[in-house]
Amino acid sequence: MFYIYCPYCGEHREEEEFHPKGQAHIERPKEPEACSDEEWGNYLFFRDNPRGVHHEMWVHAVGCRKFFNMTRHTVSYEILETYKMGEQPSITADSQNPPRETVPVSHPEGVRA
Amino acid sequence: MQRYSGFGLVKHALSHHENWQRQWRNPTPKKQYDVIIVGGGGHGLATAYYLAKEFGIKNVAVIEKGWLGGGNTARNTTIVRSNYLWDESAALYEHSMKLWEGLSQDLNYNVMFSQRGVLNVGHTLQDMRDIQRRVNANRLNGIDGEVLDAKGVQELVPIMDCSKNARYPVMGASWQPRAGVARHDAVAWGYARGADAHGVDILQQTEVTGFKIRDGQIYGVHTNRGDIEAKTVGCVAAGNSSVLAKMGGFKLPLESHPLQALVSEPIKPILDTVVMSNHVHGYISQSDKGDLVIGAGIDGYNGYGQRGSYPTVEHTLQAIVEMFPIFSRVRMNRQWGGIVDTCPDACPIMSKTPVKGLYFNCGWGTGGFKATPGSGHVFAASLAKGEMHPIAEPFSMFRFHSGALIDEHGAAGVAH
Predict the structure, then answer these.
(1) How many other C-beta atoms lie within 10 A of the C-beta of residue B416?
(2) Nearest chain A Cα to B265, which residue?
(3) Cβ A20 vs Cβ B311: under 8 Å
(4) Strands B35-38 and B60-63
(5) Chain B residues with CB-CB distance to A49 below 8 A
(6) Which of B72, B179, B311, B319 would give a disulfide with B282, using CB separation of 3.0 to 4.6 Å?
(7) Residue B397: pLDDT above 70?
(8) Is the pLDDT of residue B127 over 50?
(9) Is B256 an interface residue toward A (CB < 8 Å)?
(10) What is the distance between the alpha carbons of residues B341 and B330, in angstroms, rounded to a whole number?
(11) Which interval of the chain is the signal sequence (chain B) (predicted)?
């Protein structure tokens, strides 16, 4: 369960109030007609999928209903920061060197299902 | 390989079952192989098995960073079906279904494939129209299927709430009698034993840390146990495929998400089929041990942590209790997560890559288990010939540039 700080409401709220909305900082090509098939396909379908620090959009769906950005670690799930749309992250994979990596949780009992 | 039989069981009983042969060896890596498979889950082991058995390529290594079948193979809800909408995916999953039907005999290993049927329940008029369309498409592709009304569903599953008073009343369902469940661990073990018997080296606790690429052609992999060379490398790494692709210097249109499942305490036999609902969004079956096996949708955020959030578990159980009020007081025993690599069109990727000799089999998302034999078979054929098998051809990673997507969101069963 995440406890998320909405940068617009200025409060921590529970995960259920929010929805994840995919990778942050994607720019729509300025001239879609001028794109090659490859450029357009990359824009539509190819996302960063890092094992580590990731920047993603969330929406405060049952709160202020605003979109904002979050920097989160995809292995430890630790939320490193949240920031408003249009702002740049202060924490990135490069600034987190060496990257924070927790021991992957294994559920050996799960294999008996 | 020591063959299993009833006679063998009696024979070994005389020595108190202490002299059974190990099912596979634990070899030291050789310097060079003809083919390397990265990922020792069901799909990877099946690929190695068919490479050795059907295509005569026995100098094969399966490299696994953990232990055999410790990832999604052991974490899924074991459902097997082939009622997909589009021709391309129907061909793939039906190919797999036909292999499932003879798998225990082929492997000489009981994978406990039980064709108890799968119901895909509809709760709205649109659900029913989609179900009719899908069943008709299935029949044209030679896949068994029937459309049932609410009465038919009630007859098959008496404990389900099919009354008009339900919040989302059951209006009917699609029914695939040949579908069912299989024992997932046995699938991995059976393929591993079969592959090993044909001379495949299964290297556990061996992690690929990089690819050896020269002039756009792969010639080996770096691992934590030294370099291993091969001119053909097939990556079958599910949730970690994007990480491997990055080592190869390209990107895949995948996002890794946690997918959770849970089982209840064991109860007496009560549910003899598989019930899935896209609308209230949950699916359930009962294992031979008696526990209810329950799953639903992915957690919406990217994650490699093999665990998800509690709200997702809560929504899953809400859906189950909505359909089966009788289960409202059953206690859940265990809950876990796996990392699924979802693709934008809910179809897998079986493809060549920008690196010559490097192939990827990934993007199975939430529905990979059912495809294990078929995926392994056509991927093995592709690796053996250097050309993608006709069934695998439409699933190229380059379809996201050409636009020839195969939109299976409707039949995938789980919302991505």
Answers:
(1) 18
(2) A113
(3) no
(4) parallel
(5) 242, 252, 254-256, 302
(6) B319
(7) yes
(8) yes
(9) yes
(10) 31
(11) none
Second CATH level (architecture) for the domain B6-78+184-254+345-412 = 3-Layer(bba) Sandwich (3.50)
Q: What is the pLDDT of residues A47-58, one digit of tens each?
A: 999 999 999 999
Q: DSSP readout, A13-77? A: EEGGG-EEEEESS----S-GGG--HHHHHHHHH-----SSEEEEEEE-TTTT--EEEEEEETTT-
What is the band of A100 on the pLDDT scale with cuts at 50, 70, 90?
A: low
Q: For residues B23-33, give the mean pLDDT.
A: 96
Tell whether the model's pLDDT for residue B316 goes beyond 80: yes
Q: Residue range B251-263: average pLDDT?
A: 96
- Could you say which of B242, B306, B309 has the minimum Cβ distance to residue A49? B242
Return the CATH number of the domain spanning residue range A3-94. 3.30.2270.10
For A21-78, write each residue's pLDDT tens digit: 999 999 999 999 999 999 999 999 999 999 999 999 999 999 999 999 999 999 999 9
ipTM of the complex: 0.91
Residue ranges of domains in chain A: 3-94
Find, among B60, B78, B113, the residue nearest to B379 by Cα: B60
Find out whether B341 and B239 touch, Cβ atoms under 8 Å. Answer: yes
B185/A111 Cβ within 8 A: yes
Distance CA A77, CA B299 (A): 12
Q: Which of B401, B306, B148 is nearest to A111 (CA)?
A: B306
Question: Cβ of B132: how many Cβ atoms within 10 Å?
Answer: 14
Cis before residue A7, ω within 30 degrees of 0? no
B246 vs B233: CA distance, rounded Å: 15
Q: Name the one residue in this structure whose structure tokens are 């959009």.
A: A57
Distance of CA B410 to the CA centre of its chain: 18
Residues contacting residue A100 through CB under 8 Å, at least 6 positions apart: A73, A76, A78
- Residue found by looking up tokens 């636009």 in the block: B403
Question: pTM above 0.80?
Answer: yes
- Write down the pLDDT at residue B414: 55
Residue-level pLDDT at A101? 53
Could you tell me which of B341, B338, B340, B339 has the C-alpha nearest to residue B252?
A: B341
Q: Alpha-carbon distance B69 to B199, whole Å?
A: 19
pLDDT in the model for residue B297: 87
Question: Per-residue DSSP letters for B47-113?
Answer: HHHHHHHHS----EEEE-SS-TT-SGGGTS--EE----SSHHHHHHHHHHHHHHHTHHHHHTS----
